[in-house]
Amino acid sequence: MLTKRIIPCLDIKDGRTVKGVNFVDLRDAGDPVELAEIYANEGADELVFLDISATEERRKTLANLVKRVAEKVNIPFTVGGGISSVDDVDILLQNGADKVSINSSAVKNPDLINELVAKFGSQCIVVAIDAKQINGVWKVHLVGGKVPTELELFQWAREVEERGAGEILFTSMDHDGTKNGFANETLARLSTERNIPIIASGGAGNMQHFIDTFIDGKADAALAASVFHFKEMEIKDLKKELQDHGIPVRL
Fold first, then answer.
1. Which among 69, 105, 163, 175 could bridge 203 via Cys, Cβ 3.0 to 4.6 Å?
2. What is the pLDDT of residues 153-162, one digit of tens each?
């Protein structure tokens, strides 16, 4: 059985790590390079960096940050935010990123997934999907959750896999930052229907939530932010708890 992964997420705005609730009310959470090094040393399996206010002009800034992080960590890390071309990905990978995460650009131009997979390989391409329930239907949202679409979550996840993406990072906007647990019923359906790894995001508040998302949600990895940033739990303690519940992890 494959080991389950614990992935701290660093949302980056103006070069700092920030965290909010339901994608709003952001507060400062520290220096991203320092946090990355701490998490790598504490036993994180991977890291995710999301430049939540990325624009074309900021790509150079993010590349510099990626390079600084790559010099400090020895675990894979994924970078996302404002990526819309092969050249964007090339720059980030050259500066030390292992994978990239695309979201809005993939919805606007689905062929981008195929292009990136053809150039860099499936293992390198993560498609992030931010969704919330509207009248009982999970609708995909873009631009950091600000722009709703008519695209339905499960339909889009299928297309993403068919186009060659290596992983899906699913964030429930309804659960994000609430610390009430992950969207496990939805995650379980995604994991059952799709043949690529599903990363759970949105809602981690305690260790039981991680146990539940691996068992009930069938997630391959769990991503969290504030519980790690604000020292509400240590990664090594979380992994010990997961192991005690029969969940395979890398210690």
1. 175
2. 999 999 999 9
Please tell me the distance from the alpha carbon of residue 110 to that of residue 46, in angstroms, as a whole number: 26
* Residues labelled catalytic: 11, 130
**Pick the residue with more confidence: 186 or 53?**
186
Decide which of 138 and 145 is more confident.
Answer: 138
Domains, the chain, ordered by start: 5-244 (3.20.20.70)
